[in-house]
Amino acid sequence: MKRTELTEMQQRVLLFLLENDGSAFRDISDKTESNPNAIKKAIDELMELGLVYDKREDTFPRRRLIYLTEYGKEVAKRLKEIVEIINESSKHPQKPSVEV
């Protein structure tokens, strides 16, 4: 069965790539201040889900660049919207309404 949830690290990668598509693996790790092994695992899993793909640069040093697929762009955009909603609602906490 295919996984239906995204880990925090996968979400972090998707959101980073939404603003920095075509980034080198090392840049993703450095800019997100994340463990390189965790980033590698997240990217591999995102590739399996069809959300990202990699491509080697044509010129030296031929870094591995990571790109969002069209599907990945859609998922990342929606994820960003969710994060923005959560951030906005945390500024204006609402008490749950309970009818008795």
Automatic annotation (TrEMBL):
InterPro entries: HTH_MarR-typ, WH-like_DNA-bd_sf, WH_DNA-bd_sf. Residues 1-100 form the HTH marR-type domain. Gene3D superfamilies: Winged helix-like DNA-binding domain superfamily/Winged helix DNA-binding domain. It holds the Pfam family HTH_24. It comes from the Archaea. PROSITE patterns: HTH_MARR_2. GO terms for molecular function: DNA-binding transcription factor activity. This is HTH marR-type domain-containing protein.
